[in-house]
Write a structure and sequence with these properties.
Layout: E1 8-12, H1 16-27, E2 31-35, H2 39-58, H3 64-72, E3 74-77, H4 80-84, E4 89-92, H5 98-111, E5 117-120, H6 127-131, E6 140-145, E7 154-159, H7 165-177, E8 181-186, H8 193-209, H9 215-226, H10 232-239, H11 241-255, H12 264-272
Parallel strand pairs: 1-2, 1-4, 2-3, 4-5, 5-6, 7-8
Antiparallel strand pairs: 6-7
The structure holds acetoacetyl-coenzyme A.
The site of acetoacetyl-coenzyme A (CAA) has 18 residues, from helix 2, helix 8 and helix 10.
Length: about 290
Amino acid sequence: MSSKNIRTVAVIGGGTMGNGIAHVMAQGGLDVVLVDLSADVLQRAVETIGKNLDRQVRKNRISEADRDATLARIRTETDRAAGVAEADLVVEAVPERAELKAEVFADLDAHAPAHAILASNTSSISITEIAASTSRPEKVIGMHFMNPVPVMKLVEVIRGLATDDETTARVMELSKALGKVPVEVNDYPGFVSNRVLMPMINEAVFALMEGVAEPEAIDTVMKLGMNHPMGPLALADLIGLDTCLNILEVLHRELGDDRYRPCPLLRKYVAAGWLGRKSGRGFHDYDG
Ligand code: CAA
């Protein structure tokens, strides 16, 4: 079976990444079932997809008919078993907790068709470990999209220890068909993206904590000096400071090297509930 046979995709989790993934899959012509336990989350997810499609219409990237056809290909479902029953591919985007992923994948394995590929959008949890909670580890793979999903070209495709060549080839082919650039990497803490990105963000937080410069100054140095589209602190606010802390904890624990120790100031912000854009405040202020 090639990726041409992937017609129906179930996306598990209607948060920022889940709605972005549903958006690009539907825009690529696939039938999408967006699954979340909360009907409210699903409603907000579909509204967000609608707003992001409108933005693409305003920029003349797509027509109004494309927008309507894309939305028409997305249906929502609160019952996970029903949501994955017809899926050729499932992409999981639930919160980054290893025990939650294990529970979700055992359930996906029980309810998705035997031929279905089970992919995770995890940013740091081991694909090999996730695969071990299923009876089809050869069909389990990482499909790591970047935020904002409709804009960012990369899909980091992560092979677990047991992932087979056919599964990898189908996911690479599908990612290309969606207009993305897939890059294959092996399963190792943080993969490539966060192994390299998070130490930079963490170092920017240390620079702030040590009084080297104000947040705006740190971001401007990296934006204008290194041509990054946004500074590391603004990027941390976009990703979510709780997510950044989680990823750093995985790197620190699993690589066992103190260079990945999360900055105490990052911990303090997360403890205060200053999580970045989603909470209205992080290293920068987003109120209003
Ligand atoms: N949906 C659809 N389109 C969107 C969008 C969304 N959610 N957000 C922005 N866009 C589009 C805009 O319409 C615009 O389109 P055109 O180029 O066609 O005009 C384009 O993206 C640029 O947007 P803006 O002009 O509004 O803003 P900008 O130029 O400041 O770009 C940005 C915004 C794309 C976020 C840019 O700042 C950027 O690339 N930042 C870095 C993002 C990044 O590094 N992401 C990776 C994070 S790490 C991660 O996700 C993985 C992990 O595991 C932690």
